[in-house]
Structures are given as C-alpha cells and as structure tokens.
Amino acid sequence: MADDLEARLQHPRRHLGDRHLAQARKFLKLADRDPERAQGNLDWAEQHARQALLYDFTQADAWRLLIDLKHRVDDEAGVHAVLEDLFTVLGRDPERAAQLRGVTLLPVAAELLEAALLKDPLNADAWWTRLMAEEHADEALLEFASRCRRLDFTDARASVIFARRLIRVRTRNEDLFVELSTHLLAHRPQNHELWLDLGRLHETRERYNEAWLCYDHVQTLRPHMDVRDRFQARLNAGLEGETGAPWSPPDVDTRQRFLSAIMDLRTRIAPVVEQAPAPPVEVEEEVRDPVQANIEALLAQGEHAEAFFLARRALASGEAWAQDLLEQARAGMEEPE
Q: Which of 29, 52, 88, 238 sits most deeply, having the most CB atoms within 10 A of its CB?
C-alpha cells in the first residue's frame, strides 16, 4: 500500500532533472578548460543546474553544484537564496531560516549544505534508514514528529518530501502517521492521494466516520473519484443481513468538528489574515453573511486553503452560496506556485 501511494504522489520528473544536471556539469568542465569563456559557460551551467532542481528538487547533487557555482563567482546573495530555498523544501523550519539572516555564508556555504542534507536527506529511503539507525530509534522518531509539528508545508515541494517520509513512518507507528498526515494536509489540503491513504487506514481500523470524512474530502477535491460513494456502498453491503439498517454518514456536527480541527491545525503556522472591515451598508443593500465576506477576503488574498475549509464548513451547514466559493478555492489551490 505504501509503495502504491508513493507511485501516485505528485513526484519530481527525475529523468529531465538528470539530463539538465549532466549538461550543467558539462558546461562547468568547459569553464575550467577555457578561462577566456569561463563566465559564459558558468552562466550556462547555472541555468541547467536550476532547471535540474526545477524538474527534480530531490537531486542533492544539483543543490551541491549550484552552491559550487555561486561560490566560484563570489555570489553571497545567491548563496543565501539557494540555502533559503533548500530550507523551504525541507519544511521552512523558522529557527533554521532565521539563522541565515545577516550572516556571511559564502565561506561555509558548502558545509552548511552538507549539514542540512545529512540531517534531512532529500531521499525518503535515505532519511528513514538514517532515522532507524539511531541508537534510540523511537525517540528519534518522536523528535522528528515534534519538529514536524512546527514546520510549514504550504510549499508543494515540502509537501511531497514529507508525504514520502510519512509513508515510512506508517510502517513503524500508524497513530503518528495519522497525526502528522493530518498536520501536513492542513497546509496542503489538495493532496488528495494522502487523504485517500488516510481514509483507507481508518477503514482498516473500522473507524468508519473518520474514513468517510477523508473519502468525502477526496471526492470534494476530485469529483470524478467516487471513493466516498463506493465506501458507503461497500459498508452497507457488509451490513446486509446483520441489522438491516444502512450505515449513516457522519452528521453535520461531526463534519463541522472535523473541518474546524483541520483549520485549527492550519492556523497554528499559517499567517493570520485579518478580515477587512466591511463597508457601510446602505439601507437598500442586502446584509451579507460575515462568513461569506471572510471567505471572499481570503480568496482575494490568495489564502485558498483556509478559504477552502471555511467554504466546506459553510456548505456542510447548508449554505448554498458556499458552493461557488468552494470551487474558486479548489481552483486556486490547483494553480502552479
């Protein structure tokens, strides 16, 4: 199941990344051989190194090469940008990012990069092997979980990296997988593959309300995937001959609590968007629902994930106007970043 999920996760285009990395190395060799044209070849090498990371941000050698290129041209600002981007991919640890500001990094950039990759390998298997090799592996796993809870996964690349890690965590601690997956999904709710796997785990555990809520989220994100309907049909078929009564989905209060819990997780890290003051209401104008106004303000400011959860909660309460806002939020989450 874990391998099947990882195959379905949005993943880097590794082949194209390898091609660009090979081209970057080629131009770097040309720069070494021909000093007169070194600058032009270094520029080409940097372009290909960046393309390699664009296609495969898990390629550690591409990060190393880009740092090397920045070091060769004494680009202090470029080194800062590369390292900050790497930390973004690794989950935007606020403490780690803060250490970079106002510090000269050029002389130690390569060492910082290697230290970051040693602690947080981009490859999920390498990360898991390192974690399990710890003398106290369970304690190391709990320490990872503690760090994970304060990271920001709104970056799509960080979401992919940590989703792959959580697949490994599930083999060791299913309860921790559930908790951390929920945390990640609070920041990247459009990751329907992880919602689907979470629902399957709940179904296996016979936690049918939780499974239905996850499947419902998948079907809301991908209406053509009728996983919620098939789950309910599957469950009712299994109940035939036992009670004679069909299984009922969670009630509105349960759905509201589920969505509120996800939103609470999200707002612990995501910046709080202040609600814009409502304009004076003319006597003739219809008074607008404040929740609707808040969702529209969030959409206008690009906070699509939070708007999505609020719209879902309003829709679960029977507010028909929330359907259009839900579609807008879903479309916004699917736009490339």
A: 52
